[in-house]
Automatic annotation (TrEMBL):
Belongs to the UPP synthase family. The keyword Magnesium applies. It comes from Rhizobium paranaense. This is Isoprenyl transferase. Its cofactor is Mg(2+). GO terms for biological process: polyprenol biosynthetic process. It is an enzyme of class 2 (transferase). Mg(2+) binds at D18, E205. HAMAP family: ISPT.
Length: 248
């Protein structure tokens, strides 16, 4: 299958995979069918990201707020996650994909946590795409945990408050060692971050797509990358063209 070339691609792409339930409702299907179809979109997206050379792909798989959903839906979502790891881990490992999991691990169910740890340990030395699974993740919770960690160091005399810098906060977040996302995509037409990577998204590009996640195809993925390549990222300064004009 041919892979297009782009003038620029994001080193780190993050995706809010939204719309599984609405996809199913629009077709008169149970919501669980939307989640199952969404897993197929995950597989295709991971393959496409690897094909174009993206280094980091973060998928918002299960938020810390998702526990509020009906118990049957939560059970199905967790079952799909377990099935994905059991079925796809070996293939991802063969593809040299490294898996990393972010989110609060405290009090996670005993049938989930070992699988997440296994996925990380099995693939920790891989050097191609890093697939970051945001599970039981909420950005405000993540930032709170980071500041609690810093506060403990201050209390113990290991750190002075005036020495706290953004880089030090970065190092206490779940994403420590991972570059901030260059592009964040959200499907289903919703236009909000929903407590996802709030600190890390300071200079991210955003793309809100009307398609539901189960319909997120390889072609849509490449279309999003093409639009990203056309954007002019300035990070608060001047673009290369503007800087050249000023210097001329």
């Amino acid at each position: 299958m041919s892979v297009p070339t782009f003038s620029a691609i994001p080193d780190h792409l993050a995706i809010i995979m939204d719309g599984n339930g609405r996809w199913a409702n629009a077709r008169g299907l149970p919501r669980t069918m939307g989640h199952r179809k969404g897993v197929e979109a995950v597989r295709e997206t991971v393959r496409a990201a690897g094909d174009v050379g993206i280094k980091y792909l973060t998928l918002f798989a299960f938020s810390s707020e998702n526990w509020r959903r009906p118990e049957t839906e939560v059970s199905d979502l967790l079952g799909l996650l377990k099935a994905f790891i059991r079925r796809d881990l070996a293939e991802l490992h063969r593809q040299n994909v490294r898996i990393r999991v972010i989110g609060d691990r405290y009090n996670l169910r005993s049938d989930i946590l070992p699988l997440l740890i296994e996925a990380e340990e099995t693939t920790k030395d891989n050097t191609a795409l890093t697939l970051i699974i945001a599970f039981n993740y909420g950005s405000r919770d993540e930032i709170t945990r980071a500041f609690v960690s810093l506060a403990k160091d201050v209390e113990a005399g290991r750190l002075r408050p005036q020495d706290i810098r953004p880089e030090l906060i970065d190092a206490r977040l779940d994403t420590a060692g991972i570059p901030d996302p260059d592009l964040i995509i959200r499907t289903s037409g919703e236009e909000r971050l929903s407590n996802f990577l709030l600190w890390q998204a300071a200079y991210s590009e955003f793309m809100f797509m009307p398609e539901y996640w189960p319909d997120f195809s390889r072609d849509l993925f490449f279309s999003a990358l093409e639009k990203y390549a056309a954007r002019d990222r300035r990070f608060g300064g001047l673009s290369a063209k503007q800087a050249a004009a000023v210097g001329s």
